[in-house]
Amino acid sequence: MTDIQEKLDALLDRVRVLEDRAAIGDVLSAYGPAVDAGDAEAVGRLWAPDAVYDLDIGVMNGRAAITEMVRTSPHQDYIHGGCGHLLDPINIRLDGDTAVATCHSLLVRRNTDEDSFRVWRASANRFELARIDGEWKITRRTARLLDGSADARELLGRASD
Amino acid sequence: MTDIQEKLDALLDRVRVLEDRAAIGDVLSAYGPAVDAGDAEAVGRLWAPDAVYDLDIGVMNGRAAITEMVRTSPHQDYIHGGCGHLLDPINIRLDGDTAVATCHSLLVRRNTDEDSFRVWRASANRFELARIDGEWKITRRTARLLDGSADARELLGRASD
Amino acid sequence: MTDIQEKLDALLDRVRVLEDRAAIGDVLSAYGPAVDAGDAEAVGRLWAPDAVYDLDIGVMNGRAAITEMVRTSPHQDYIHGGCGHLLDPINIRLDGDTAVATCHSLLVRRNTDEDSFRVWRASANRFELARIDGEWKITRRTARLLDGSADARELLGRASD
């Protein structure tokens, strides 16, 4: 019986890891739809209250600053002109109650003069997440434009740390 | 023994959820390769017989209409000119034998006058799926161009319903 | 007890499949960050020593040839000019100690004359992987430009083999 119990507990731990990875994927795959919907509340729920969103073009401190960004210009101009915030497959490194997730992002915007879109920004992304009251939340997102600068390369190089 | 049996059953239920999510991911990640291969049968197998593919530019009713689209113009023109139908990370909400999956899609097409591709369409996507005879199938796909219209934003806003 | 033991073993097998799929996803989602970081060692670790990277524009034989590509021109020119190697959701077919993974890839490069990026290459990809000494490694990657040629369509059509 003890042997069975131990095997069951070990298996449960392995399933928990897979569930955590899925839950982290759920948070990050919810960001693009929420931000392109302009749904500030849905965006806000993905972040910890004291989260930091550190972009090459500025830093937002706290969930309220992030939801304010969604509600205001220029973000509202982008979504009303037509835009999409996309990610590519997310590399997740789980470590107990925290995790690091690395991927690329694209911001595509509709061209006004022709029937197509332009890739306006392509960035390197590092998401830091934590389990807070049983739910995974983004605690920090660092994004750097892939403009040839060392910043983006260094961020991506930390994926496998 | 009863305690162990109950724990085992509970764990089995959790593993089934993870397997369902993986199976849904398999269906949706198979769509792009099949449609860009021009393989109408492989595309058709991913949909329920009475599935609906509701695009901003038209509605296809039933699997036969969807496979006919793959076999004919303009789709065949796109793939022979060079194109790719891409998705970004898929947000899956599983509810027993049905699921909703939300993501962006890109249709990139090769430029004839230069050595690159253009993003011809960027869309918001909502896939509704059901387990039919033990296999996950798409029952409805709604796609709306990210052209600034309320349709696309509302579709994306329903991801977290 | 025998019944419980058998159920536990069966469940363990199912969890192993999910873990293998996650591990394969980890390898493939690590490629883009590593190659855009210009981190040749991190790229190299993802491939088997005798791996083959078969592109429409050339074939690299062995891990050393692949890491040499990362260290040299034109790859170093791309990353210093600003580029991103992105994938879309990866379709994984697992078969014991080997697997096939199919997806699209994009190579976006920063435009020097304006504040945006161009999709320089969009390709069909087939990754073959194997479990080697307990770790998943890429044994072969075949990539074909989505230029309308039969090669890319045939590669994508083999996803569901």
UniProtKB/TrEMBL annotation, chains A, B, C:
Coiled coil: none annotated. Residues 17-142 form the SnoaL-like domain. It comes from the Bacteria. This is SnoaL-like domain-containing protein. It comes from Gordonia alkanivorans CGMCC 6845.
